[in-house]
Amino acid sequence: MGKILLYYKYTEIQYPKRILKWQKQICTDLNLKGRILIGKEGINGTVGGEDKAIERYMATMRKNEQFADIDFKLSDGDADYFPRMAIKVRDEICALGVDPEKLTVKDGGVHLEPEQVHELLSNKPDDLVILDARNNFESRIGTFTGSITPDISNFRDLPKFIDENPQLFENKQVLMHCTGGVRCERATAYLKTKDIAKEVFQVNGGIVRYTEAFPDGHFRGKNYVFDRRVAVRITDDVLSECDLCDTACDTYTNCVNMKCNAHYISCELCITKTKNTCSAACMELVASEKVPVRVPFATAPEQRVVAKK
Ligand SMILES: [Zn+2]
Ligand SMILES: [Zn+2]
């Protein structure tokens, strides 16, 4: 078992293509897999590999002055938790769909450390609003108690949600959170441009850092992640139901009909009954051999959050 790294850094990168070339070299040399996005506004990545390779990756990054202070979040895993190594140059390193020159992290909300987040959530002031900046399929299986969970399936739809629901934030202290913190950096800046909230905070290091510090804190259920683990269990609470039979369940699977590939929640019983398909229609198509079928999604064994200290 190796490690998975999650990190980002907003910093002005003059020549993203040079960083791209450099990253491709390192990742090839170290046999890493994952996804790295590079833009003029910074770098955002998640990579997996052997322990030594991950250590060397971090050491190499830290030697570069611009990336020396990156907060690397580590968890168990390896290169095979990702299908490939994808490194790309993009305008936005986390796509909110807003011009990165017009909306920068400099105008983002105040960063709160896990301890400060915990205190705020424990004190629960009347004017506090918790906003989950993630997608519906993520917040469905786990979130902070009392969070507003927008029904969006893409981060690019968050600005529209904010535009359409200003009353939720009017004169409130808003605490925004996401998986590792990268999405909140510019999403809090976006909310601030509306000038409706009393104060805008973001969870530094996101759900990952908060739950490491407070595994039995205010977050319930599972933290969704974008690799073969799919989610990391934080508490035993099951917030969602099986999409097929409605029993309490928070395990995602993918329909084996490759043309469908629905990502849905299914209990063991329904997986067996439907032969790992999402519907009667897909089960019929698969049985008729009219569609390409893939091997059932091999999720990594369930992990539980590892408390720090
Ligand atoms: Zn079921
Ligand atoms: Zn299907």
Distance between the ends: 22 Å
Q: What is the number of domains?
A: 3
CATH class of the largest domain: Alpha Beta
Bound small molecules, which ones? zinc ion
- Please give the CATH architecture of the largest domain: 3-Layer(aba) Sandwich
Poorly predicted runs are none
- Strand numbers in spatial order across the main sheet: 4-1-3-2-5
Query: How many β-strand stretches?
Result: 15
Individual helix count: 9
CATH topology call of the largest domain: Oxidized Rhodanese, domain 1
Shape: globular
Q: Class by helix and strand content?
A: alpha/beta
Which percent bin holds the helix content? 25-40%
How is this fold's topology laid out?
Blueprint: E1 2-10, H1 16-29, E2 33-39, E3 42-49, H2 51-63, E4 73-77, E5 85-89, E6 110-112, H3 114-123, E7 128-132, H4 136-139, E8 142-144, H5 158-164, E9 173-177, H6 182-194, E10 199-203, H7 206-213, E11 219-224, E12 231-233, E13 252-254, E14 263-265, H8 268-274, H9 280-287, E15 303-304
Parallel strand pairs: 2-5, 6-10, 7-9, 9-10, 12-15
Antiparallel strand pairs: 1-3, 1-4, 2-3, 8-11, 11-12, 13-14
Helix pairs in contact: 3-7, 5-6
Bound molecules: zinc ion (2 copies).
Residues 242, 244-245, 247, 266-267, 269-270 line the site of one zinc ion.
Could you explain the architecture of this structure?
Strands 4-1-3-2-5 form a 5-stranded mixed sheet. It has 3 domains: 2-89, Alpha-Beta Plaits (2-Layer Sandwich), CATH 3.30.70; 105-221, Rhodanese-like domain (Oxidized Rhodanese, domain 1), CATH 3.40.250.10; 240-309, no CATH class. Helix 3 crosses helix 7 and helix 5 packs parallel to helix 6. It is of the alpha/beta class. The model has no long low-confidence stretch (mean pLDDT 96). The chain is built from 9 helices and 15 strands. Residues 242, 244-245, 247, 266-267, 269-270 line the site of one zinc ion.
